[in-house]
Amino acid sequence: MENLLRKNVQRGISFIGLLFWAVIVAVLAVVAIRTVPTVTEYMSVKKAAKSAASSATTVPEVVEAFDRQAAVSYITSITGKDLQVTKNGDNIVVNFSYEKEVPLFEPVYLLIKYSGSSGSTDY
Question: Does a structural domain hold residue 73?
Fold first, then answer.
């Protein structure tokens, strides 16, 4: 008799539970879709900074090289004037930091702070 009662017990997720998880997945998808372009731009900025640091010997040359690379790579968040160029021995090191404001849905925005250096090897 106990086995008969157990067979009638339903398993699975309720409609309300399904809606709850659908909303969570949708919000995460919106955040991911809106932030991926900023991460891609950050990778381009890092690559342009490394390229400018390796190809130039003076600060104006670094700024000019970065601006050329930024124009080709569609970098709009930072310019060559925003770079901090220093010398570490014989090597030129380019540091940068900037903020990107990503609109999620009115009036909610996500603020992402990016920073990097031409001398670091991590992405």
Answer: yes
